[in-house]
Design goal:
8 helices; mainly alpha; 50% helix
Length: 143
């Protein structure tokens, strides 16, 4: 005897809170991104302050500085507050995007902060990413 399974489908209806958060995220109002350059600024400030340290220590310094100095963003309807990373991660965006300089000019950074950021970027802080990768894996690790 063959069993026949009945499938039921239902339409998901998000709550009012989720609908509002989704609408806000999709519309990308300026308030969502106006502080984004501060994340880059504070990250780069920490990175540059740790010059001469190992790459892991510079990364840790940069992240710690950004976490310490970024203001907490509290938005109505959110259960978790604060900033989050995105595909616009600093290490992948500095120098890689031609419009990064334009982003600095259009940001909420003060004129002094914009100038400082341009100076830091002029020093090629993440140029090490252009280096050749480490040599091939030893054979015993390839197994």
């Amino acid at each position: 005897m063959e069993e026949v399974m009945e499938y039921r489908t239902s339409t998901y209806e998000p709550s009012t809170r989720i609908s509002k958060l989704r609408e806000r995220a999709l519309s990308q109002p300026p308030a969502l991104s106006e502080r984004a350059m501060y994340r880059h600024y504070y990250y780069l400030e920490g990175w540059m302050a740790a010059g001469g340290e190992s790459l892991p220590m510079r990364s840790a310094s940069a992240l710690a500085n950004a976490i310490e100095k970024m203001p907490v963003a509290m938005v109505a309807g959110e259960l978790l507050v604060g900033e989050h990373g995105s595909s616009d991660d600093l290490s992948g965006s500095l120098g890689d995007h031609e419009d990064f300089a334009e982003g600095i000019a259009e940001s909420c950074l003060s004129a002094d902060e914009q100038e400082q950021m341009r100076q830091w970027l002029g020093q090629g802080p993440l140029d090490f990413q252009e280096l050749a990768p480490v040599g091939p894996w030893p054979e015993e690790l390839e197994r």
